[in-house]
Q: What sequence folds into this?
């Protein structure tokens, strides 16, 4: 009599065991994901600091070549042509000499679209969420934004009547040397982060006269009102304060909340657009805040070429002291 071979019974996961395994995997992913995100952000923050370091070297190479630091922008008497930015003037020292050769500084950037729409990687923080061009809706030139703004000081920016610039590291028509920084290059901010497509208010009821006091709070600034725009910091070629500069009216990442038709928006403020001597008597004062997508801080370049991560909780007194070139403050550690 032939015996039938016995069948080996296959073991298998039960439904409960499968659910347990899936739950364990989900927990492991939940534990791992924040670590991966933190590692990626640390890499982006490091690249951001490296971008600023390169711009610091470019500024000092410019100083070595021309014996002065570049101006934030330039205006001749009666010249209403839009002025090129400080950032555009250091291009040859950022391995972008070919791009600068395309620039005719005697002409407005609005008629040089090949330049204005160019994306410059070193000008952009890798954490920036709006790394995209600003497309003209009027048939004008397209523009590319950037992440690193020039320090114009605490509040006052430019008086076309007296041709005086603010107390920051850069200004209209300035030709600063190291001797102009009596506070020391290591105690003065040169550049700091900003967010692209930053909303702003311009030409409100805020002061357009000299020696106006620094606003005491964001509520004072938004009370000035003005024309609302959502395209600040979108033109790396443009030397105006709301495009390529910042001020230390408020601490980094400070909320300046404005009710724009029922929607609260974090804004900058500019009392008057910078004009050439003879073209206007309105003084430009500005609250243009340094902002970053790095949590809790902004990266800043000091004028000696070093880069620091500055906490958004820094004292306003220290932050403003760091922005003045001749304030006589002793900053120390920050």
A:
């Amino acid at each position: 009599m032939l015996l039938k071979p016995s069948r080996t019974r296959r073991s298998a996961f039960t439904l409960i065991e499968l659910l347990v395994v899936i739950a364990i995997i989900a927990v492991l992913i939940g534990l791992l994901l924040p670590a991966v995100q933190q590692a990626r952000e640390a890499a982006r923050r490091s690249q951001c600091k490296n971008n600023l370091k390169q711009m610091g070297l470019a500024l000092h190479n410019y100083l070595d070549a021309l014996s002065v630091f570049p101006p934030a922008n330039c205006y001749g008497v009666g010249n209403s042509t839009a002025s090129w930015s400080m950032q555009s003037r250091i291009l040859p020292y950022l391995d972008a000499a070919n791009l600068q050769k395309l620039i005719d500084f005697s002409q407005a950037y609005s008629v040089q679209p090949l330049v204005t729409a160019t994306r410059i990687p070193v000008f952009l923080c890798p954490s920036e969420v709006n790394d995209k061009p600003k497309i003209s809706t009027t048939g004008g030139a397209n523009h590319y934004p950037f992440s690193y703004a020039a320090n114009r000081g605490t509040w006052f920016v430019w008086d076309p009547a007296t041709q005086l610039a603010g107390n920051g590291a850069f200004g209209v028509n300035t030709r600063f040397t190291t001797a102009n920084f009596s506070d020391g290059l290591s105690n003065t901010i040169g550049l700091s982060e900003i967010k692209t497509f930053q909303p702003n208010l311009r030409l409100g009821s805020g002061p357009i006269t000299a020696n106006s006091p620094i606003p005491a709070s964001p509520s004072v600034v938004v009370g000035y009102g003005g024309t609302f725009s959502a395209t600040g910091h979108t033109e790396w070629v443009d030397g105006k304060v709301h495009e390529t500069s910042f001020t230390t009216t408020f601490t980094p990442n400070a909320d300046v909340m404005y009710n724009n038709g029922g929607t609260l928006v974090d804004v900058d403020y500019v009392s008057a657009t910078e004009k050439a001597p003879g073209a206007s008597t309105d003084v430009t004062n500005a609250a243009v805040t340094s902002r970053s997508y790095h949590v809790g801080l902004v990266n800043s370049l000091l004028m000696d070429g070093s880069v620091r991560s500055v906490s958004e909780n820094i004292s306003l007194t220290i932050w403003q002291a760091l922005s003045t070139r001749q304030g006589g403050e002793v900053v120390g550690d920050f």
User: Anything to note?
Assistant: The radius of gyration is 25 Å. The helical segments are 15-66, 86-89, 97-101, 113-116, 218-222, 241-244, 316-323.
